[in-house]
Amino acid sequence: MSNEKDRATARAILPLVGGAANIHSVAHCMTRMRLGLNDRSLVDEDALRALPAVLGVVDDDTYQIVLGPGTVARITPELHRLVAQEPPRADPATSAEDLARRGAELRAEAGARNATPVKLLLRRVANVFVPLIPALIGCGIVAGINGALTNLGWAPALVPALTAISSGFMSLLAVFVGYNTAKEFGGTPVLGGAVACVIVYAGVSKVEAFGHHLAPGQGGVIGALGAALLAVQVERWTRRAMPDALDVLLTPTVTVLVTGLVTLFGLMFLAGEVSTAIGDLATWLLAHGGAFAGLVLGGLFLPLVMLGLHQALIPIHTTLIAQQGSTVLLPILAMAGAGQVGCAVAVYVRLRHNPSIRATIRSALPAGFLGVGEPLIYGVSLPLGRPFVTACLGGACGGAVVGLLGQLGTAIGSTAIGPSGWALFPLLAGSHGFAVNAAVYAAGLVTGYAAGFLATYFFGFTKGMLAELDAPAPEPGPDVAPGNGSSGSADDGLPEAGRPSPA
């Protein structure tokens, strides 16, 4: 039944994005289907938003349809199959080159609005880490279970096995980062992984750089990222100068040798210093910034999500997890989702006569409680304007509570990245046991919910917005002959903005 429903949704989406001929790529992340479109003017966005499964759309470097976690992973393959069954065909009067050129121009125009060099770089760095999130979540939850068993003294024979399962991936995380970095930036992926292997190799302890012996893993993911980026450049330079007959032998050799030496005698030490500074800064912020740091971080996170730049924080989170066993920033940043949930509930209460918006909130709210904020952002608060600001205020208040409690000595962190909201409870870590960790996090969530609700309820709407968005449906008048000007006629004199939106 679920498969048939997913297929029906995919069939409904396809014509609304211009059909198979208008699609040149189909992919998805945790919540969004990402479509590469040749001509975005063919998209019927209003009809697309009206589909029950669609929680919102984002016009970015790819055309993104927000479907929510789980749902997107089921519908995307169905759409991919539909596109594959009907290969894109160019207009007979248009050459393939013309069509490709037109598509490239349209994509460039659409992306130019947000395509600053810094944003593009951050997105590419985020693309390195996004594929790693499922493994980080799985290993993080296993680590949480292992910690609970250790603290309770249960199943001692199982603890070493769970330790191996949860720690194995993390010990080789730098290798995966190197592989993905080379892949993302146009190099040979396995060469990126090979130079990153140098960082985690136990024998580096015999190498001395800047007057200190190196430690295995020194520099972590930041060192792996830098090493793989250097490998991509060395590979390109070498390949340009190398005769074709020698390319297959010498290009990988020069790439690994040159990059490996630079990594050992420079990058590992420098990246280690940067990683240590990141850990020290996060600890200092929580110890001294407290409520103010939480206020700022919790309040600014939703705008980062809106811009798609929140994933650029993944290297910082993974560095903290590798150094300290958990990231103290994630529980604070997760409060932004709590403010968004409180905001959405307030919008639901205030707009009693708007079935369309209320239906969107009902469908997106469960994902919001689990920390997936994009459906509520793009489907509710951001289009309304003021509620997006009040949602940020709710997140700021929740972050301030978590930050204050951390400053008072009950700092909490997350052993993995990816989940937030209620889904973060199994990943919480701290020095006072799970009950205290959960209580601190719950206090932040409740504060975020309440502050987001109250700020939105009292300040999220102007009188004009309420008049437009929450106008009650007109009472049906008595049956009279057409054209007599009664209230039951089709032309009832109401302004269009005063009519309720269709469900």
- SS summary, helix count: 19
Provide the low-confidence segments as ranges.
88-108, 479-503
Shape: globular
Helix-and-strand structural type: mainly alpha
Strand order of the largest sheet: 1-2-4-3
Write structural notes for this entry.
The strands form three sheets. Strands 1-2-4-3 form a four-stranded antiparallel β-sheet, sandwiched between helices. The two termini are 24 Å apart. By secondary structure, it is mainly alpha-helical. The chain has helices spanning 2-16, 45-50, 71-85, 96-112, 117-129, 133-152, 159-171, 173-184, 189-200, 220-241, 244-307, 314-324, 329-333, 335-350, 355-369, 374-384, 386-407, 434-459, 463-469; strands at residues 23-28, 32-37, 56-59, 63-66, 208-209, 212-213, 412-414, 428-430. Residues 88-108 and 479-503 have low confidence and may be disordered. The longest helix has 64 residues, at 244-307. The chain folds into three domains: 2-115, Glucose permease domain IIB (Gyrase A, domain 2), CATH 3.30.1360.60; 127-284, no CATH class; 303-466, no CATH class. The chain has 19 helices and eight strands. Helix 14 runs parallel beside helix 18 (434-459). The relative contact order is 0.09.
